[in-house]
Amino acid sequence: MAKLLIVDDQIKMAGIIQEYMQQINQSFSKDNTFCFASQDGNLRLLSLSELGQDSDHFLMVGKKKEVFSSVFQFLSEHTNENVLIMIDVLLNSTNISAPSYERYRADEEYSCELYAELLRFKNGKAGKWTVNPEKFFHIIYSRSDASIGVVMTVLQELYDNQAEGDKAYFPKDCVLFNNISWCRNCCESTDEHFEVTASEDEKNQPIALPKGYLEFFKTL
């Protein structure tokens, strides 16, 4: 069955997205939806059914190497199953407003870097992990429409500064607005502990997926 992998520092947000995504595709159950959590002091990708409802958010600051390794290891273990990867733009910052490019860099965010590296493997790059490019799909999301501008800027920078050998897998077209797989997170409020607080309307539609995405996700 299809797997849903949510890269977000808010486990509660992952749970809200999972419930919505299961309405679109029954394969995305709690058993088949995975997110990052701390287990015995270590970063782990666990299913939501293993975590339970009351799990706290997971701090992902300084975890870029571990996150990348875990995501690609997950893909290498599920080469025969469809995997949808959803990536929050802000993995380190607790600020819910749209970041500037300078703020993205100051907070040492790495969501766009993960998005770009996944795209390289999607386009045939080989590496230490054996993945099936036809079986995984990924999308990046944020709480503000303005964030797409930051994503474009960071992707442009990654394109300009990438190794010569990577350009075949991450060409210029990948940084164009119409080619970026992105959607808006509609859950715009947090409490005093920076945990997401969603109204019933937001829970009913926590992410604003374009119609084409909705129809495609039904087929996974």
The SSE order reads EHEEHHEHHEHEEEHEH
Strand percentage: 15-25%
How would you classify the helix and strand content by structural class?
Answer: alpha/beta
Q: Kindly, what is the distance between the CA atoms of the first and last residues, rounded to a whole number of angstroms?
A: 8 Å
Supply the number of helical segments.
8
* Biggest sheet character: 7 strands, mixed
Radius of gyration equals 16 Å
Helical fraction equals 25-40%
Uncertain regions: pLDDT < 50 for 5+ in a row? none
Strand runs, count: 9
Q: Record the strand order, biggest sheet.
A: 3-2-1-4-5-6-9
The averaged pLDDT comes out at: 90
* Cα shape: globular
Question: Could you characterize the architecture of this molecule?
Answer:
With 220 residues, this protein is of the alpha/beta class. Helices cover 35% and strands 19% of the residues. It is built from 8 helices and 9 strands. The strands form 2 sheets. The protein has a 7-stranded mixed beta sheet with strand order 3-2-1-4-5-6-9, with helices on both faces. Strands 7-8 form a two-stranded antiparallel ribbon. Helix 1 links the parallel strand 1 (3-7) and strand 2.
